[in-house]
Amino acid sequence: xxxxxxxxxxxxxxLDIDFSLYPFIAFWEITRAxxxxxxxxxxxxxLRRHPQELTTAEGRHLIDQIADLGHPLFVIxxxxxxxxxxxxxxxxxxxxxxxxxxxxxxxxxxxxxxxxRRAKEVGCARVSISLDGSTAAVHDAFRQTPGAYQRTLAxxxxxxxxxxxxxxxxxxxxxxxxxxxxxxxxxxxFKPATxxxxxxxxxxxxxxxxxxxxxEHEEIFNWLYDTAKRVPFDIKTTAAExxxxxxxxxxxxxxxxxxxxxxxxxLEFTAPDFQSGDSIxxxxxxxxxxxxxxxxxxxxxxxxxxxxxxxxxxxxxxPLAEIYRNSSLFRDLRDTAKLxxxxxxxEYNTICGGSRARAYAVTGDYLAAEPYCVYQPVALAPxxx
Length: 385
Fold this sequence. Notes:
By secondary structure, the protein is an alpha/beta fold. It is 31% helix and 12% strand.
């Protein structure tokens, strides 16, 4: 096994990690089978498993390749990964290879205290559970499954009883934007390590009309920044690269009105003195589709993320490292000089770059400008007389 660029398994990432060589996070969708039919599901999950899923032996080989890519954070997802009997074998094997393993199951009857306790025993460092509303009315409408809210609360209670570190995921859409202030208070009741706030990308079952507007993105970003200062857990975002620009702007404004902070400014906001209690760290710099992130599907196709359904290669045909490092798709996504429109000239494009998944979903061009960003780059500002 090759040496980790982070100083070995479990070592914290350092700021100069080269995303052209080593991803920060690797997802493996071990199945698309799932009992739910959520409105936003990027996988359009089905009730039955696909006959061409990677086998147990192929899964172990994939885990070896992920470990050789610098021991990135390894997320086992789906569909519902609990639908595979060999799930625990994969968690154990990944842990043995020095990976920090996180599990993203669905809130179904398969998610019990016993199943979560077993996952922890074989090495699972964190479990992520989705909660999209503060009430059953909001959450169940989004999940398209009556009773999903109560099952989610039961899953969170089971995780607490099993002693598993929890990340709560929430997807922002027009269905729950007004509920966010109440939702964050509901989230706080479960004392998660992290609240991960996803911004809808219209792929799979997700629809463009269900997204919040560009202006609402901006309003929610500022609300998140303010909220992160008062809650006792970490807040991170997904498919919201332009939130990083808001953080920089807000911190610069605060510095201008008070003492300038010493050292580097963290782009993401972590609550003061926050300790997650697990081995899952934060990215040392902004991750984007294909730039610090890779996604392997249930049949071995490698994409820049789960929200950008373009394929750079298949692990049944090429080594994972070769696909991530050398495919034209991934190389394009890491080259900010190829960004088009206002993203191409934006002074924040190296820390933001816009959601490449949303750009593709809305325009059909993964290098197009982020369509849900209101910011106008300095380069495009009208010349002053």
